[in-house]
Amino acid sequence: MNTHKISSVQNQIENVLRDQILSGALQPGNKITAQELASQLGLSRTPVQTALKALIKEGLIENRTVNANYVADAPSDSNKMLLNNIKKQVEDFCLQQFRLNYSADDIKELEAYHLEAKRALSTHDSLSFINGCMAFHKHYIDAAGQDMTNIWYPIALRLRLGDGKPVYNEKELLSIEDILHDLKGQAESQAS
Q: Where is each HTH gntR-type domain found (predicted)?
């Protein structure tokens, strides 16, 4: 698995801000302006504004005024319940599609994401845990097509927003282990 990628400045800004939001370093309600951020980074406003627009689409940032964006609040309990139901339906559908045509390489990649999440949980590294879990699910969701990824990804991110604290737990890791166990079992039964 080649993890060396060349990333645009815009993508780097998105990734840093996303990580800061998901880790709780940027709290709900924190103001983020393109002009201030561009000035801090020594960049023009264009890549910063584009990065902020992408994070608005992901639901991590809200645009409340013309010149200011704010870190989004966690979804309300009722919205969280709805979003969890939609997320689960998308994951179940995509997993069914993935089961039709996956390879040993897919299993290896899923195992690597699982290991990343497991290590991160044991060391209380919330950001690596979130990234490992998101990558695990995104792998089989991507296999079902871009439409499914476009639906699932922003919902999954929104559900990661806590009240300034990272959202992660052992239950999620157990769910990933169940999926991996089922996929390995299916591969073994198909091989025999």
A: 7-74
- Flag the least confident range among 67-71, 159-163, 178-182: 159-163
Name the percent of the chain lying above pLDDT 90. Answer: 67
Nearest C-alpha neighbor of 131 from the set 18, 13, 54: 18
Q: For residue 71, what is the enclosing H or E element?
A: strand 69-71
- Residues 85 and 29 grouped into a single domain: no
Domain of 109 in residue numbering reads as 77-191
pLDDT tens-digit readout, 37-61: 999 989 988 999 999 999 999 999 9
64 and 83: one domain? no
Dig out the tokens for 101 from the structure: 């045509």
Amino acid at 137: H
Q: How far is CA 115 from CA 30, 90, 147, in A?
A: 33, 24, 28
16 plus 85 within the same structural domain: no
Q: How many residues does the chain have?
A: 192
